[in-house]
Amino acid sequence: MKVIFSLLCFSALLVGCAGQQFQPSQNTTVVAVDGKGKLEIYDAARQWFSSYFVSGESVIDYENREVGTIIGKGMGQFGSDPFGLIDYRAHYTLKVETKNNKFRVTSEILKHSNRGSDRIYDVGYLSPERVKQGEAHVQNVIENLENYVESHSGAEASDW
């Protein structure tokens, strides 16, 4: 009887430690940018995409200056296993919509993946901690975008 009880407790412990199945998560942030028009905000956001993601053409899925919308895909590494052999990655989209004096960023984490020494593979079950780390990484990306748009003009003058 003790053996059965011990096995049940051990099984419950294993189930409790198991990860949760990943579900895409979405977040929306509205940022006020006083004194900047829709096109100025759009141009600054477009510059940010080009500099932050290195290759703007490869990550931007849609852009329309007149409407004030940019949609891009990103992937970021935010940690690794305890031995440093496997990198943790989050794949996400960012949608930026601009209006006068403000813009909205909608982010969606589409999936998580791991990169080992010889391959990259999707991860379907994640610990709650890893989910939070992925969300924190995407939030940091959004904060970087906010800071860039607030501090840069989309069409900065040049005297060269």
Description of the molecule:
With about 160 residues, the protein is of the alpha+beta class. It has a domain at about 20-75 and about 90-110 and about 130-150: TATA-Binding Protein (2-Layer Sandwich). It has four helices and eight strands. Strands 2, 3, 4, 5, 6 and 7 form a six-stranded antiparallel sheet that branches. Helix 2 (about 40-50) packs across helix 4. The protein is elongated and about 50 Å long. Mean pLDDT is about 85; it is low at about 5-15.
CATH topology of the domain at 20-76 and 92-112 and 128-151: TATA-Binding Protein
Biggest sheet details: 6 strands, antiparallel
Oligomer: single chain
General shape: elongated
Low-confidence stretches: 5-17
Brief rundown of the structure:
It contains 4 helices and 8 strands.
Question: What is the element layout, followed by pairings?
Answer:
Layout: H1 2-17, E1 20-21, E2 25-32, H2 38-52, H3 56-59, E3 60-64, E4 69-80, E5 87-99, E6 102-115, E7 120-123, E8 125-126, H4 128-151
Antiparallel strand pairs: 1-8, 2-6, 3-4, 4-5, 5-6, 6-7
Helix pairs in contact: 2-4
